Amino acid sequence: MAEHEDELRRFVPQLLYDSQETYFADSAAEWTDNPANVLRREPQTGKDPVILASATPGEREEKLTLDFLGEVSYANGARAHPGDQISDAPPDYREQYARLRSPRYANVIYARAATDRESLLWLQYWFWYFYNDERLAFDIGAHEGDWEMIQLRLAGEGGTPDLAVYAQHARAERRPWDLVARAPGRPETPLVYVGRGSHTSYFEPGLHVTDVWYDIVDGARPAPAARLEFLDDLPWARWPGRWGGTPKRIAAVDQDSPVAPCRHSQWHDPAALLDRAVEHALRAPDAAPDGIRLARDDGYLVLAWDLARERPGARAIIVNVNSADEPGVAPRAYTFDIERSPRARLQTTIELDPAKHYELHVSVIDATGMPSTCRRVLIEPPAPGAFDLKTILRAIGRFVAWVRARRR
Which domains does the chain have, with CATH numbers? Predict the structure, then answer.
């Protein structure tokens, strides 16, 4: 029995995903058991990586599983190094995840209890995600593997929490227990709103400012009841390697694939996360450059911009496309290079079904490479019975062209 198991079960959180989420909190075994994955060690310059184990091993290879991993050494006695990584060569993460996800792996929360530097007890809940699908520009932000967590300080009356801290990218947000939203009818169950793609934990839905852009979460998709597993009973939780092979591309705005939970400072001292937590995370204003226009024209997205004065030297425009009418379809991110065109109108190849509602978010990459805050744009289908003059004129034009062709 894990230490403080009763308390860990009593206050286990309820995860609320965004309606457009693609990857969910599951067993970390999804990653080790994924047939495409190998445990590898990056070599010295000019040499090939060393394969230490594989989910689909060859004749002389070790079988990769969670049980193969260890804090100091692997199951075969080989030494474990911090530079070791479990990674995946093919880029079809969504297809792999869809094939792999099953009741065996789905809906797992990892839990442990720890004391801080002042001997106060904290309950920690860790969440593993197969892939971080948050993209900024040029695939920056997306990476293999994702570890997220929240923690509750048990310093209230009757062994109840007095404070909650939710990890958020490089920072965290804290909130008194009395102000934490709880599940209806379950006053001991804190709600965690999970950011779309990034899986960052928030106290409430909405648009949330991050260090580099923003997170979206509507909380419309409650997770099923989770299976609780206790990290202190699992040797692999102390494996020093990296859960994925994605390297950061731009240090200021990007991330490597995550390290193991034990390599985070709050693992050893939960107060370390509290030290960098803010009382309230910033909320993204519904604003951004005014010189950008988005519209649907003949079933495609039209993008127009004039940023010569408002954003001189701007390098790119990012457009994120979502539709509530496309359940299970992940948000799509598109990047348009505008460095040589401070003003233009572009008929894109991005299809927007005339019968569907779309929620678009647009941002600008400035001359320094940093994204601006986003602006939200809603594109609605025409009202029943409404006439679109452009569509009518195009139809007339096509009919006239057809008649002329028939007369030839």
Answer: 5-29+93-283 (no CATH), 292-379 (2.60.40.10)
